[in-house]
Amino acid sequence: MNTIILLGVAVIAIFFLLIVIVYEVQKQQLGGPGLSNPRMPAKRSPSKPRFSSNRHAQLHRKLVTMVGHEEAARRLLLLVRERHPQKSIEWVYEKAIFDLERDRGRY
């Protein structure tokens, strides 16, 4: 009887670990260009994000200018990306900029 209980506990523990691993992998894959992204080469500096378009680069410059620091802009983008993982990276930038402008009383 004790071995059955121990086996059940072991199965539950393994199932829990698998859920945690899947969650962490999905969380890492939410990043896009300019964000923390495991698919980007390790040698790239986080201060020099890769842009998919000129519009993307413009939005990035505007956001960094508004918050004053590259790392703060990256964290803000990660927060918006977590809340809206299905949206494009340009949409995420626009949403972050809109939220900042709204919070600063422009809208």
Brief descriptors of the model:
107 residues, mainly alpha, 0% strand, elongated
Describe the structure.
The chain is built from four helices and no strands. Residues 32-38 have low confidence and may be disordered. The termini are far apart. The protein has helices at 2-29, 54-67, 70-83, 89-103.
Summarize it:
By secondary structure, the chain is mainly alpha-helical. It has helices at 2-29, 54-67, 70-83, 89-103. Helix 2 runs parallel beside helix 4.
Topology:
Layout: H1 2-29, H2 54-67, H3 70-83, H4 89-103
Helix pairs in contact: 2-4, 3-4
C-alpha end-to-end distance:
66 Å
Helix and strand element order = HHHH
pLDDT < 50 stretches: 32-38
SS-based class: mainly alpha
Largest sheet: none
What's the pLDDT, averaged over the residues?
Answer: 80
Helix proportion range: 55-70%
Strand content: under 5%
Give the count of helical stretches: 4
Give me the Rg, rounded: 20 Å
Shape: elongated
What is the tally of beta strands?
Answer: 0
